[in-house]
């Protein structure tokens, strides 16, 4: 199934070829000045390069996309593209020099000279690794321009001399013109007019030698502008007009040449587009067949997945219901056991309380009989001993209370230490819901006294009173 899905697009070989073709066409458009078309082709090269996993082509595409964006582009996007290109180029240090040089030029254009120097130093390191003198020349030239724009004229001159030294012992006229032109500019900025005049003089000698009749300024037209300014500084206005004419003539020639190149490139682009369209038609036909097969396979797979999802949901729900039923049974079992224990505990308390109350009733009955006898005190003690053993009836009652309400006495003593003995007894008897007369009989006092005791107890205990 995965093989069917992967076949929906062009195969890696076709994608790689499409990426490389787009990259080459983009470079042609870029050289001709058609930046918008070049940008489109470079993005296409990046797209197909990613499909083919061709990291080198992707890196070159991103490098050229950044160059099309130019120095006025967003810093984040520009730097991200160049860093990705630098990483994708791998061991191709010559190309990585170009990437870092462009990045350094970007920052020096925006007057961020520290960042520019950082990336140019990295470019120099790549140049050393590449082992090519040409890469080192690119970096030296970039350092020279950066220092010149940063107004570090001494360093700018040093880098320019190092650049010239890489061409020794044989230096071409084009390199010498570049050297004398820029060195003359440096001396002009420094105010060293003698050295400036010497450099511009050397430049003028080379340009005049290459164009003795002034009719073919194709390779030297740019320098005529500087020579015209130099002639004006000397007061040679006739020569200045001549040089200005040569500069304008060369500029027009350059424009016409670029136009012819653009026409040739458009023709080439048309021929290439025809061949590309034929290839695209074959690829599209192939893709339509593959997409049809893939669509059928997708429908089958989706139907299978839906059935599996439904089955899984039903099984999950059954498992949840069984788990809930088991849990409910366990809860019912536990509750039944707890209810049985609670009923047994209540029965035990009731039996013990009934026994205690029965003894109390027996005591009261005996008291009614014995108190009529003159020996009532002695008989009362004998009665308490016979019923409660070595405890009096109140202590026996407290024993029952402690079993029914553990820690009641300790809590009462801790929270209400100012309760008197009869008030504390009255509070404990309130748990048994006795009437006023019953409580008076138990305490051995009158109903009026019980009311007074209850009033004092309520006042001291406040809202906590039962």
In short:
With 466 residues, this protein is mainly α.
Note down, in words, how this protein is organized.
The protein is mainly alpha-helical. The chain has two domains: 289 residues, Serine Threonine Protein Phosphatase 5, Tetratricopeptide repeat, CATH 1.25.40.10; 95 residues, no CATH class. The chain is 83% helix and 0% strand. It contains 19 helices and no strands. Helix 8 runs antiparallel to helix 9 and helix 13 runs antiparallel to helix 15. The two termini are 80 Å apart.
Q: Spell out the CATH superfamily of the largest domain.
A: Tetratricopeptide repeat domain
| Residue fraction in strands | under 5%
Structural class: mainly alpha
> What is the CATH domain class of the largest domain?
Mainly Alpha
Shape: elongated
The helix/strand series, from N terminus to C terminus, equals HHHHHHHHHHHHHHHHHHH
Mean pLDDT: 80
**Estimated radius of gyration:** 54 Å
What is this structure's SSE topology?
Layout: H1 2-6, H2 12-31, H3 35-51, H4 55-69, H5 75-88, H6 93-109, H7 113-130, H8 133-149, H9 153-165, H10 173-190, H11 193-210, H12 221-234, H13 237-370, H14 376-388, H15 393-404, H16 408-415, H17 421-429, H18 436-443, H19 447-461
Q: What are the main properties of this structure?
A:
single chain; 466 residues; mainly alpha; Serine Threonine Protein Phosphatase 5, Tetratricopeptide repeat; 2 domains; 19 helices; disordered N terminus
């Amino acid at each position: 199934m995965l093989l069917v899905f992967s076949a929906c697009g062009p195969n890696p070989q076709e994608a790689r070829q499409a990426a490389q073709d787009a990259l080459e066409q983009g470079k042609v458009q870029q050289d001709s000045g058609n930046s918008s078309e070049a940008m489109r082709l470079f993005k296409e090269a990046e797209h197909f390069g990613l499909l083919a996993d061709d990291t080198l082509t992707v890196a070159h595409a991103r490098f050229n996309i950044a160059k099309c964006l130019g120095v006025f582009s967003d810093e984040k996007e520009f730097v991200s593209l160049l860093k990705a290109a630098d990483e994708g180029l791998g061991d191709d240090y010559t190309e990585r020099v170009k990437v870092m040089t462009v990045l350094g030029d970007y920052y020096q254009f925006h007057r961020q000279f520290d960042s520019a120097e950082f990336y140019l130093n990295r470019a120099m390191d790549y140049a050393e690794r590449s082992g090519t003198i040409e890469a080192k020349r690119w970096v030296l030239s970039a350092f020279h321009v950066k220092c010149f724009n940063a107004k570090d004229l001494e360093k700018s001159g040093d880098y320019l001399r190092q650049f010239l030294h890489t061409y020794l012992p044989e230096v071409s006229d084009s390199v010498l013109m570049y050297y004398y032109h820029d060195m003359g500019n440096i001396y002009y900025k420094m105010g060293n007019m003698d050295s400036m005049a010497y450099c511009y003089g050397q430049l003028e000698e080379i340009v005049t030698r290459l164009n003795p009749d002034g009719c073919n300024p194709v390779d030297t037209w740019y320098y005529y502008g500087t020579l015209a300014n130099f002639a004006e500084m000397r007061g040679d206005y006739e020569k200045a007009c001549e040089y200005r004419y040569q500069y304008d003539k060369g500029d027009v020639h350059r424009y016409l040449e670029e136009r012819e190149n653009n026409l040739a490139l458009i023709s080439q682009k048309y021929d290439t587009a025809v061949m590309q369209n034929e290839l695209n038609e074959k690829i599209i036909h192939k893709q339509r067949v593959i997409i049809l097969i893939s669509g059928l396979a997708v429908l089958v797979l989706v139907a299978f997945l839906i059935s599996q999802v439904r089955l899984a949901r039903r099984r999950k729900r059954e498992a949840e219901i069984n788990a809930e039923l088991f849990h409910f049974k366990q809860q019912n079992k536990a509750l039944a056991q707890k209810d049985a224990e609670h009923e047994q505990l209540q029965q035990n308390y009731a039996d013990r309380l009934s026994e205690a109350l029965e003894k109390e009733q027996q005591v009261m009955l005996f008291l009614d009989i014995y108190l009529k006898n003159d020996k009532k005190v002695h008989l009362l003690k004998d009665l308490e001993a016979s019923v409660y053993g070595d405890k009096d009836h109140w202590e026996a009652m407290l024993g029952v209370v402690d079993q029914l309400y553990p820690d009641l006495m300790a809590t009462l003593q801790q929270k209400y230490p100012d309760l008197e003995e009869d008030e504390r007894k009255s509070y404990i008897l309130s748990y048994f819901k006795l009437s006023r007369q019953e409580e008076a009989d138990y305490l051995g006092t009158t109903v009026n006294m019980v009311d007074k005791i209850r009033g004092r107890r309520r006042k001291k205990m406040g809202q906590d009173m039962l």
